[in-house]
Amino acid sequence: MTSITRNLPPFVRDLGVSIVGEKCYVSLVENLAFGDTECLKTALSKGMGWGIVIGSGVMKLPQLYIIYKRKSARGISTSGSAFETLAYAVNLTYAYRNGIPFSTYGENAFLTAQNAILMLLLIQYAPRPRALTSSTDSRTTKLLGTLLIMIVGFLLLLFVPPPILATFQALTLPISIASKVPQIIENHRNKSTGNLSWFAVLLQTAGCGARIYTIYREVDDVLVALGALLAFVLNAIIGVQMWLYWGRDPVVHKVKVEEKQEPLLARSEKAFVERTPPHSRAGTPSLSRPGTPLSASRSGRNWSRKVD
Fold first, then answer.
1. Which of 9, 180, 184, 255 sits at a 20 to 30 Å CA gap from 243?
2. Closest CA to 90 of 173, 195, 169
3. pLDDT digits (tens, 9 = 90+) for 263-286
4. Is 163-250 a domain of CATH 1.20.1280.290?
């Protein structure tokens, strides 16, 4: 068997070496030494890492499709998605500029791009007041402004000095909290997950769990490890909410409308109309003539006697 594994095509060997390294490739592939636990752990970590990267390429696609198909972003926190996009972009640029293996951060490249599209869809299909439903000027302005901010922000992350970028990486911990907590609160408030994609949530939670192991094996960076751990916990909470609120419609929160008080003049006129006898109201024939005193018009008999 080893005679076959030691004579594989060059491109297969180069690919294997690029994934697990020269030492582990020779041990596991050419010598079939499956008792080499250290190389087995390395191969497992590399395999999980590349699996996460490949899976991230389709992670957000179901979410994007649901929003586009239903023309609704109900149940999805715009602020949370914005913070999540920022966190992905910072993780991507920090890992790239520090020479961290692509298999340990590659998913951030795909997720940054998909989240950028998600942000545009959230703005496009966000609920609007009735007065603005017929106008597209405000919507177009917001779309162009958001796109411009994302492009400029990403370029800044690519060229800022390393100490500033390291500070941004440290800030991804509170940013991760800010990206998930609004979504968790909205789910709890509505007792529903709205248009959230269960596939995206499940894949994201599983990917974060696997990423903790790959970072532990391959990356000696506390900030990156803490970020992965925090992301796993927050995604797991949303996953539990998906299970608890599965199939539920959002709770309709009734808004108490205060009764409008009538102006003082309107109330006085209303009270006068209620106290006025029926025969003296508008539309009812009156026995009195113009200019006749009210006391004289109450009885036609008294008036005729005065004439006599």
1. 255
2. 169
3. 555 555 555 555 555 555 555 454
4. yes
Alpha-carbon Rg for the chain, nearest whole angstrom, is 36
Contact 224, 100 (CB under 8 A): yes
Domain spans of the chain? 53-127+139-160, 163-250
Cα 56 to Cα 83, 190, 200, 234, 241, distances in angstroms? 18, 28, 9, 18, 22
Distance CA 128, CA 139 (A): 10
pLDDT in tens, 10-30: 888 888 888 888 888 888 888
Residue 169 CA to residue 94 CA, distance in Å, equals 7
How far apart, in whole angstroms, are the C-alpha atoms of residue 93 and residue 89?
6
| 83 alpha carbon, distance to own chain's centre | 9
Q: How many CB atoms lie within 10 A of CB 207?
A: 22
Burial 148-171 (b: 16+ CB within 10 A, else e): eebeeebeebeeeeeeebeebbbe
Look up tokens 């800030």; give the residue. 171
Tokens of 213: 């192991």
CATH topology match: 53-127+139-160 vs 163-250: yes
Residue 5: DSSP 8-state: H
Residue (of 45, 3, 9) closest to 24 by Cα position:
45
Fold of 53-127+139-160: Monooxygenase (1.20.1280)
- 97 burial type by CB count under 10 A (0-12 exposed, 13-18 middle, 19+ buried): middle
Q: How far apart are CA 162 and CA 287, in angstroms?
A: 97
Q: How far apart are the first and last CA of the chain?
A: 142
